[in-house]
Amino acid sequence: MSSRLINFLLLTIIIILVITLIVTNKYQRSIDVSRNEHFLINFDQRDFNRLEEMVNRFKEGKGDNLMIIPPIVDGGYWIHDVISNGREIQWVVDNSRDGMSSERGRVEYICKSIDINESEDYYTFVLSNCKNIKEDEILNIVSFIKEEL
Fold first, then answer.
1. pLDDT-based confidence at 54, cuts 50/70/90?
2. Do 118 and 87 sit in the same domain of this protein?
3. Residues 60, 86 share a domain
4. Same structural domain for residues 53 and 26?
5. Are 5 and 67 in the same domain?
6. What distance in Å separates the CA atoms of residue 63 and residue 82, rounded to the nearest whole number?
7. Lower Cβ count inside 10 Å, N or C end of the chain?
8. Bridge partners, 130 (sequence order)
9. Environment class of residue 87 by beta-carbon count within 10 Å: exposed (0-12), middle (13-18) or buried (19+)?
10. For the segment 56-86, what is each residue's pLDDT rounded down to a tens digit?
11. Rounded distance, CA 27 to CA 4, Å?
12. Are residues 27 and 66 in the same domain?
């Protein structure tokens, strides 16, 4: 075989390998994103959009499930499990891992309304029309800092 033919074959093999790696990497990234769409831990634009999607789905009468773990300043994590059937939202806040909390444990809210309130610096997701609180009370559940989105 001539050296030109060998070089051509080697170059062809290298190009095929590079293309295969690129395609595989894109495929793996799409799997990672779809696999984690129900776990919100970064409180970035992607997490905000996903929680906003859950609110919109609820208003359309569609169910959804999320696990939300907001960033901590001190203490331990507060884990939010959110289950919606499109008519009611079961929002469970578990702060049993937070050693600094005065009232550690698990609190469950079952509500018929969820909204997003906007202030100058925050987007706050709020629950209302809940079974185990006063009828007109609004619960601020999680907030996103606008500057960080």
1. very high
2. yes
3. yes
4. no
5. no
6. 10
7. N
8. 111
9. exposed
10. 999 999 999 999 998 887 777 889 999 999 9
11. 35
12. no
Please report the beta strands in 47-105, taking only residues with DSSP state E, as ranges in sequence order. 64-68, 79-84, 89-94
Q: Per the structure, how many domains does the chain have?
A: 2
Cβ(139)–Cβ(128) below 8 Å: yes
Q: Contact, 65 vs 84, CB < 8 A?
A: yes
Helix H or strand E encompassing 32: helix 3-35
88 and 18 in one domain?
A: no
Distance CA 131, CA 143 (A): 22
| 55, 103: one domain | yes
Strand, coil or helix: 69: coil
Domain of residue 26 covers 1-35
| Whether residue 104 sits in one domain with residue 31 | no
Query: What are the structure tokens assigned to 67, written together?
Result: 């696990």
Q: What is the C-alpha separation between 23 and 5, in angstroms, rounded?
A: 27
- Distances in Å between the Cα of 53 and the Cα atoms of 49, 56, 58, 103 are 6, 5, 9, 31
Sheet holding 122-130, edge to edge: 39-40, 64-68, 79-84, 89-94, 106-118, 122-130, 138-145
